[in-house]
Amino acid sequence: MLTSADDEELNKILQANQELIDPEFLQVMENYATGLEQQGNNNPVAWLRNIAQQLGQFLNPQARSIEEYQGFLLEVLQAEAEINDGRAIITDNDYYYKNMQYKVSLKKTEEGYAVWCPGLPGCASQGTTKEEALNNIQDAIVSYLEVAEELNQGVESCYVEVELNHA
Questions:
Q1: Model-level pTM?
Q2: Beta sheet of 105-108, edge-to-edge order
Q3: Residue 125: is it exposed, middle or buried by C-beta count within 10 angstroms (0-12/13-18/19+)?
Q4: What residue ranges do the domains of the chain occupy?
Q5: What radius of gyration, in Å, describes the C-alpha atoms of the chain?
Q6: Pick the CATH number of 101-152 from 3.30.470.20, 3.30.160.250, 3.30.1220.10, 2.40.30.170
Q7: Over the stretch 47-78, which tens digit does the pLDDT of each residue have?
Q8: What range(s) does the HicB-like antitoxin of toxin-antitoxin system domain occupy (predicted)?
Q9: How far apart are CA 90 and CA 41, in angstroms?
Q10: How far is CA 49 from CA 27, 65, 68, in A?
Q11: Is the N or C terminus of the chain more exposed, i.e. has fewer CB atoms within 10 Å?
Q12: Of the candidate ranges 61-70, 81-90, 92-101, 104-113, the one whose mean pLDDT is the lowest
């Protein structure tokens, strides 16, 4: 996690991933905070919303420089580490993945409608009406995520960096 890295390493990580902090990311933070609030877990909600608000201010095009932005993010991460003894508040991705919106593709067929989720390979369904197909794909997505969660238990995970070279 970023909070366990030293300052130099954090700066490199932030420089390499600064494009990940955008308005959509801030919306994900708000959605997660709302979910925590609905679950009655109010402790991290105010903190999460405060961080999202501060990040939102920094996304403002009036920000002075990338160095200022990186310094701000570093301060946020260090504050998070101090508050949580080096542990991140958002440690359970289960809620995030099960409560996010997924883009689906819908196609009219002779039998009704075919529907699939491009972001989840192999996740597809159908229905005689558009509404039925959309309800069925929701069930298929939930099932897909449950199976993926079961398959990933006890499996080591890591991130790899991929560089695309356009010729």
A1: 0.39
A2: 105-108, 113-116, 124-127
A3: buried
A4: 2-94, 101-152
A5: 20
A6: 3.30.160.250
A7: 677 767 666 665 655 545 556 656 666 666 66
A8: 104-157
A9: 12
A10: 10, 24, 21
A11: C
A12: 81-90
Please state the φ and ψ torsions of residue 34, each to the nearest 5 degrees: -60, -40
Print the SS3 string covering the chain.
CHHHCCHHHHHHHHHHHHHHCCHHHHHHHHHHHHHHHHCCCCHHHHHHHHHHHHHHHHCCCCCCCHHHHHHHHHHHHHHHHHHCCCCCCCCCHHHHHHCCCCCCEEEECCCCEEEECCCCCCCEEEECCHHHHHHHHHHHHHHHHHHHHHHHCCCCCCCCCCCCCCC
